[in-house]
Amino acid sequence: MTKRTKKDYTTEFKDRAVSLVLKSDKPTAQIARDLGVTGTTLYSWVNNKKRTHVQEDGATTSNYSTS
Asked: Which of 5, 7, 14, 44 is packed most tightly, with the most Cβ within 10 A?
């Protein structure tokens, strides 16, 4: 049995990946394959980004999971 290893992605990589999804006409699953991440991971990043909260001072906080 093969042990899965968890990959760590930088916040910059996640932001760029989410931006591609939001600005592209390509399916999210295709973008995920192109970037070498799982579709589930990319969907998670997109959903987390959509839930980003705007604080009273206008700053945003990122809610990315550790995937």
From this structure: 14
